[in-house]
Design goal:
mainly alpha, 3 helices, elongated
Amino acid sequence: MSSSETLMRKSSKLLLVVSAQLVVCMLLWAHSSLSRFYSQERLAEKRALVGRLMLTDIALFTEARYTRHLTQADLNTPFQDFPMALEHFPSGSFVQPGPDQFRRLP
């Protein structure tokens, strides 16, 4: 038996690495699923608290009022000077309006 036969073939190494990655992916998926399952009750309590206190969304930026509270801003607020106006504040390029902003009004 030569020494080359005792070494692991490249395809076997590849199969071993792919198998290890699959195991890691399955563990990550299981962890995220279990975390989501166990945090449902806590998230429901937090949603109820936010609703009871009538809190707005988190204020990430302080410079422009339409980036301060995204759900409270109008769609035309960034263009209040004129429709083709350049953005004055850098935070306006980082955030988008909330999904409720694009809802059609009845």
